[in-house]
TrEMBL record:
One of its GO terms (molecular function) is quinone reductase (NADPH) activity. This is Quinone oxidoreductase 1. Residues 11-321 form the Enoyl reductase (ER) domain. Its EC number is 1.6.5.5. InterPro entries: ADH-like_C (IPR013149), ADH-like_N (IPR013154), ER (IPR020843), GroES-like_sf (IPR011032), NAD(P)-bd_dom_sf (IPR036291), QOR-like (IPR047618), Quin_OxRdtase/zeta-crystal_CS (IPR002364). SMART domains: PKS_ER. Pfam families: ADH_N, ADH_zinc_N.
């Protein structure tokens, strides 16, 4: 028996319960992984609250790092003793040990610690697909990125700097603005006291930006659209403040704008592509262009407390659970 967080109904953080569960031997195409660190992501809250439906009862979490304890038949490229991470697959990462599909496991290279890797699986790979695939940045652009001091945001700040991109980042406090700037964000907008669209137009001398990456959703939709150049793109990659509902006529009225709602699963497959994404990300880390460590740690048993901190905007950077 091992310890795992499970929930039997959707709702607030209190629905998360620490339970003892059985973990068997891996079957064909599977591996058993003992976790060293588990990442907490905002998407976990969507599953917990029912915004993204799951059959209940269920585990939670899709992002962790650890060591392979055992492999099942037909597993050829993952071996016992390998350090691995993952970001897709069935829910259940909030656990000490679990059996996983082996084809979602990403081997971790030497030079990438478990602490760093725990911030890179979902968050770093999200920055990769947003910046390199959804709206591929070539360098020289000025962009707007919401929640620049968050877990993905701090990696995005550094990646933008590495690409030669001028990043304007929104944050909720002056303290978070300082953190974003220290990580490479060229300009910050403190949303509690500054008008987003007005500041973007000032920074860009009235031109606006070609792309906005918006993980906030409902509360920032109007401002995001008002920041875009004609034929600009709004990448709606999250809805932490609520879902985005839009009349498409508004896209035409504001300059024939493009709107996309990307999902990681459509950008990370097949496995060879996922490994290539990870290789690019790891390359930036090993070269020192991206430095990433967890900023908050909670015991596995305190997963509910970690969720409250994330929902209450009391965190910066990445948050992890220690099993």
């Amino acid at each position: 028996m091992v310890k795992a967080i499970r929930f039997h109904e959707t709702g607030g953080a209190d629905v998360l319960k620490l339970e003892h569960v059985e973990v068997g031997e891996p079957g064909p195409g599977q591996a058993r992984v003992r976790h060293s660190l588990i990442a907490v992501n905002f998407i976990d809250i969507y599953f917990r609250t029912g915004r993204y439906p799951l059959a209940l009862p269920n585990g939670l979490g899709s992002d962790a790092v650890g060591v392979v304890e055992a492999v099942g038949p037909d597993v050829t490229d993952i071996r016992v003793g390998d350090r691995v991470g993952y970001l897709i697959g069935p829910q259940g990462a909030y656990s000490q040990v679990r059996v996983m599909p082996a084809d979602v496991l990403i081997p971790l290279p030497e030079g990438i610690s478990d602490r760093t890797a725990a911030t890179l699986m979902m968050k770093g790979m999200t920055a990769q697909y947003l910046f390199r695939q959804v709206y591929p940045l070539k360098g020289g652009e000025t962009i707007l990125y919401h929640a620049a001091a968050g877990g993905v945001g701090l990696i995005a700040c550094q990646w933008a700097r590495a690409l030669g991109v001028t990043m304007i980042g929104t944050v909720s406090t002056d303290e978070k603005a300082a953190i974003a700037k220290a990580n490479g964000c060229a300009h910050t907008i403190v949303t509690s006291r500054e008008n987003i669209a007005q500041r973007v137009r000032e920074i860009t001398e009235g031109k606006g930006v070609p792309v906005v990456y918006d993980s906030v959703g409902k509360d920032t939709l109007e401002a995001s659209l008002d920041c875009l150049q004609p034929r600009g793109s709004l990448v709606s990659n999250g809805t932490s403040s609520g879902s985005v509902v839009i009349d498409t006529k508004l896209l035409a009225a504001k300059g024939s704008l493009w709107l996309t709602r990307p999902a990681m699963v459509h950008y990370i497959q097949p496995r060879s592509h996922m490994l290539a994404m990870a290789e690019e990300l790891f390359g930036h880390v090993l070269a020192g262009r991206i430095v990433s460590e967890p900023q908050q740690s909670f015991a596995l048993a305190d997963a509910a407390e970690a969720h409250r901190a994330l929902e209450g905007r009391k965190t910066t950077g990445a948050t992890v659970l220690v099993p």
